[in-house]
Amino acid sequence: MRTAIVGGVLLIVGAIAVALGILPLDVLGDLGERVGPILLFVIAITVVTELASEAGLFQWVAERTAAWGHGRAWLLWLFVVALATASTVFLSLDTTAVLLTPVVIILARHVGLNPLPFALTTVWLANTASLLLPVSNLTNLLAEHELGTPGPAAFAALTAPAAAVGVIVPSVVLFLVFRRDLAVRYRVETSEPIDDRVLLVASGVTIAVLIPSLVSGLPVWVPASVAALVLGAFFVVRRRSVVRFSLVPWQLVLFAGGLFLVMEAAHSAGLGAVLAAASGTGDDPLSLLRLAGVSATASNLVNNLPAYLALEPVAGSPERLIAVLIGANLGPLVTPWASLATLLWHQRLVQNGVELSWSRYVLLGLVAAPVTVALATLALAVGW
Description:
With 384 residues, the protein is mainly α. It has helices at 2-19, 25-54, 57-68, 73-91, 93-110, 116-128, 138-146, 152-177, 197-214, 221-238, 250-268, 271-279, 285-301, 304-311, 318-330, 340-351, 358-383. The chain is globular, with a radius of gyration of 20 Å.
């Protein structure tokens, strides 16, 4: 509810800016055309993943993953790394943070392991693995539009070297921190029975078809909306009680819409000039490091979405825009509010009885974030 309240306040502030003429109506119209399809995608993909979770798809995947680990905690953790990465790349960071977190907690407890390394892996990779494709992060969808909608393949060609660093470096840090927890063995337990195999199969097939559709070059809201309607129809027939308004992430949409409006108004009021002075110019490695550092710092001070929105107009080139994305996507590992996905992840942690103090989270993030952002930016500079 806090997210909705903040979003409502932001919308009111934005409306005042429109009423006072700070944000012209034509600029507001352009903003609506740009962000409307993005918010529609967020709604559709959330409905799909929530329904798939209700069908037991993620639980089924977790149990199969436990068997693949062959009793070795480190191998099981590597499968979780792969699962979190794939979930983030193809289904977005919020899917990983919100839906995969309880799955890996249940998975770890199911085999008698400490759930913290697995839970922390989901939230770190939800952020740092979200650079490769437009669908991986809301900031990427915004950047794709700014780049002239190059398509998933062209976007991945720009981001791939930095995206690889975003997966590898945080994973190495996590392994070193939790190496004792991951050096043990476990016993594979019997799998839980599936309540409705038809819904399980329907969810699996729907997502299997959806994933390549999201990278086919179609506007991503189209296949996501079709998948939500198809899967929703299955649930209406077989488990109608699950189909409810709460499936729609209205709080997130309200928050994001308010942020878009306020940041556009701030730019109209002169924020761009201030940020241009702070972020500098140039495409050389030092200039890119400076820009990515400003983006990461702003993300941890405020939130990665407004940080990206504030810096996008002053990027000036595709390479510099990717540097902004590196800071906004890979940098939000320090403060709890740096990424909305992190706040949602922590709610799931509390609901599942896993304790992690924010002070420890911050300290670990201070180790991982600067190294990840710096190496990813250098990979961008070398690979460009």
